Amino acid sequence: MSDLFSEAARARQAENAPLAVRLRPSQLEELVGQQHVLAPGSALRLAIEEDRPPSMILFGPPGTGKTTIARIVAERTGAVFEEISAVSARVDDVRAVIARARDRLGGNDVRTILFIDEIHRFNKAQQDSVLHAVEDGLVTLIGATTENPYFEVNSALLSRCTVIELTALTEEELVVILERGVAALDVEAPRQALELLAKRAGGDARAGLQILELAAATAAAEGSALSEEHVLDASRKRPLLYDRKGDQHYDFASAFIKSMRGGDADASVYYLAAMLEAGEDPRFIARRMVILASEDVGNADPNALVVAVAAAQALEHVGLPEAQLNLAQAAIYLARAPKSNASAVAIWEARQDVREHGNARPPAMLRSTGHKAAAQARGHGQDYVYPHDDSRGFDVSYLPEELRGRRYYRPSGTGEEQADGGEDK
Question: pLDDT at position 295, please?
Answer without folding.
Answer: 95
